[in-house]
Amino acid sequence: MTLTQLPLEDTFGDIVGKAMRGTGISSARLASASGVPADSIERWRKDDGAANDAQARAIANVLQLDGSKLADSAAQRWYPPAIERPDIGRHEQQSQVRSNGYVYFRESHRAALVDPAGVPASLLRILRDGGYDLQFILITHKHDDHCDAANAVAAAYPDARIVMHELDVHAIGSLASRAAVVRDGESLPFGDGSTIRVLHTPGHTDGSTCYLVDGALFSGDTLFAASVGGAYGDASTYGDILRSIRGKLFTLPDETVVMPGHGPPTTIALEKEHNPFF
Q: What residue ranges define each of the domains in the chain, with the CATH number in brackets?
């Protein structure tokens, strides 16, 4: 399956807004430090136009972003190439907002469902049509657009093991008692000799977790193509997101395929090269 053809999750304005919130820099302060008018910055944050290269580099310097990569974002010069992963199926989920869920499967049809959300009947039809033996329900974080169908899927597949970080597991209510509460660095045996590696990447939420299996990283809302997730943790921060990505995700092999919770797939190498936050 070719896993592409989705718009980037974040526009130039989204990236600037996330960096402003994360660093605590206001439009007025950013304008004063960069020489770019505050009204222009506010327009861009609303996706009304975008900066030219010189303006993008000027504000990037203040926001601790990469100027060249931010300029590319403003000019819409980069989009990840198509990625072929016949062992992964993506399904677009309509919950509160659009998000990506995935089915990862082995030749034996042993499968893991990543982020059960949206219309339960649609998810169950995908699983049944594929004839999958569902071994795991992997939940990257607590937001509804990634887990609000967990109860329905778990009821239909009572033998599937629910996996979620202990800091976010309360979001699935009574189903939490069935969950395998996982911590950073754990490995789960999967299918015919594979393992799922658990990477705790706090920041978007306190329990945000990525799952690594057979060269594919299911990154939830931690890492997107050319962007990162917003900081909505109760205790974790914007700084934690960046540290999680630098210290845990960017240390993975460059060819690792990143399957994000929103937007198109990418790779670790591409994000090192094109993500303005790094």
A: 12-74 (1.10.260.40), 88-274 (3.60.15.10)
